[in-house]
Amino acid sequence: MGPSAQSLVRSGICSSEPDAEGAIKLDIGVSMDMLTDAREYSVDFLVIEPDSTEATIVHRRTDEFLFVVRGGLVGTVGDRQVELPAGGYVEIRRGTPHTFTNAGPENCHLISFCVPRYDSEDVFKINDADLGSGI
Predict the structure, then answer these.
(1) What letters, b where the CB count within 10 A reaches 16 and e where it falls short, cover 55-76?
(2) The pTM is what?
(3) Partners of 123 in the beta sheet?
(4) What is the CATH number of domain 3-131?
(5) What is the pLDDT along the chain (135 residues), one digit of tens a residue?
(6) Helices (H) and strands (E) in the chain — how many of each?
(7) Is 26 helix (H, G, I), strand (E, B) or coil?
(8) Quick one: 104 exposed, middle or buried, by C-beta within 10 A (0-12, 13-18, 19+)?
(9) In the chain, where are the structural domains located?
(10) What SS3 state is found at 4?
(11) What are residue 68's DSSP bridge partners?
């Protein structure tokens, strides 16, 4: 995928942003709250509202691990369809496109672990047309 086919996802702001204080309401029905100020990794608590769908994104340098505490998500990680009920988890390796939807009737609560630390400059939005061309 060439540089013209990618766009930076600024709605992905979370705890590692310099202006993040407490919970931040995102434009996709997601709020995030920092759970640690570690420099090597990030841990965030997310609340995803019903009927909210994340854009398909990819992290170039960051591995992410998501654990659902309450509610549930459905989504795609690479070429896999995933269903994550409460207690479910998924590992997302850097370079893997992923997207999730809260199709349930209640808020979904989850924990996100990122190594190295989440950085919004490392989050890129992927167009559906780009998925077949490789990342």
Answers:
(1) ebbbbeebbbbbebeebbbbbb
(2) 0.70
(3) 59
(4) 2.60.120.10
(5) 333 333 333 333 343 444 444 444 444 455 555 666 677 888 888 888 888 888 899 999 999 999 999 999 999 999 999 999 999 999 999 999 999 999 899 989 988 999 998 887 888 888 754 554 444
(6) 1, 13
(7) coil
(8) middle
(9) 3-131
(10) helix
(11) 110
